[in-house]
User: What shape does this take?
Amino acid sequence: MPETLELNVKATIENISQVTGNIEDFLRRKGFTDETVFDVRLAVDEAITNVIQHGYDGKEGLIQIRCEVSIKEIVLVVEDSAKPFNLSSVEEPRFSDSLEKRQIGGLGVYLIKKKMDQVTHEFKNGKNILTMKKRVATDEAF
Assistant: This one.
């Protein structure tokens, strides 16, 4: 039976560590490996940082995070009412460019996609809904 952790926070930089800490504690209590916990924590950190910095642009807002775990996968859903976002419009970083030519930032979505097994986004009923899934070994947790 899946178990769920739900968090609702103001979209502020100060709340990122609270959110990631709560998710980390939840996953550790369920017995997930350090690597899995690290990957999920990084993905959530990047996702909500992007919502705060790019979605709300420093304006007030809320972020809802749901973390659902089962013996097969971890599903994270991040919802916000910030401006619409198009996941497919984010270009992959060009690592072949010299450091001087690279833009600052732009690695968040790349890291999320590398650490999670499936990443989807939709804008529905005035909300961005980012869903991230990570498969886990059946003997890893619970």
